[in-house]
TrEMBL record:
PANTHER family: EEF1A LYSINE METHYLTRANSFERASE 2, PROTEIN-LYSINE N-METHYLTRANSFERASE METTL10. Its main location: cytoplasm. Its EC number is 2.1.1.-. This is Protein-lysine N-methyltransferase. GO terms for cellular component: cytoplasm. Belongs to the class I-like SAM-binding methyltransferase superfamily. EFM4 family. One of its GO terms (molecular function) is protein-lysine N-methyltransferase activity. Keywords: Cytoplasm, Methyltransferase, S-adenosyl-L-methionine, Transferase. It comes from Anopheles farauti. The keyword Zinc does not apply.
Length: 221
């Protein structure tokens, strides 16, 4: 039996209103200045994942279906498209995020599918189909910060990610709020740890840690 995971304190970062307001501002900045907005967890984290995916060329083909959960401004998928990946989907529950990502994608003359999808909705997730690679950089964190019953929302998230991942698929998750052991514990009923993607380390008080955790899960057989 998995150990109880201590819940995080709720935050406005876990609410849809916060992200709608944020992306409303970023749309205005993009229209006025061409600024695509913030890269969640910075560009280094994004590039680290893209590099890891590109190195799995025996397992991840450029025409495999890849989805980005909580795609925000869509830059993760834009960079994957530049690397030659052709079947890319980005979803976000913020209509403003999707509006921004579509605008940037169109201006880049790239072909990427962006959709407004609520990851808490089984019907909406089922309609997406399945993917070889499911990627999340920060969305599980945001769900974990929801002020109202984040534990139930995390459970729905884990179940729905399992639905959308192919049986031979890879779930790539980056978190700044949860450690490797906490993530393995939370996802352990439906997923098994496949890889840990190395991230920068820091040392404090004689202990070594990471600012972010990037791990790869596969489905439990």
């Amino acid at each position: 039996m998995s150990e109880q995971v201590e819940e995080l304190e709720g935050s406005e970062l876990g609410t849809k209103d916060f992200w709608e307001n944020s992306y409303t501002r970023e749309i205005a900045n993009y229209r006025d200045h061409g600024d695509v907005g913030e890269i969640w967890f910075d560009e280094d984290s994004q590039n680290r994942i893209i590099t890891w995916i590109a190195r799995q060329e025996d397992e991840i083909k450029q025409n495999d279906a890849i989805i980005d959960l909580g795609c925000g401004n869509g830059m993760m998928l834009i960079e994957l498209a530049r690397e030659g990946y052709t079947k890319l989907t980005g979803i976000d529950y913020s209509p403003k995020a999707i509006e921004l990502s579509k605008a940037i994608c169109q201006d880049q003359d790239l072909s990427i599918t962006y959709k407004v999808v609520d990851l808490m909705s089984e019907a909406e997730v089922t309609a997406l189909g399945q993917f070889k690679v499911v990627h999340d950089k920060g969305t599980y964190d945001a769900i974990s910060l929801h002020p109202d019953d984040a534990k139930t929302m995390r459970t729905h998230y884990i179940t729905n990610v399992h639905k959308m991942l192919q049986d031979d698929g890879l779930f790539v998750l980056t978190s700044c709020n949860w450690t490797e052991s906490e993530l393995v514990n939370s996802f352990g009923e439906l997923f098994k740890l496949r890889n840990v993607i190395p991230t920068p380390k820091f040392k404090f008080g004689g202990k070594v840690g990471s600012v972010v955790t990037s791990i790869v899960f596969i489905k439990n057989k």
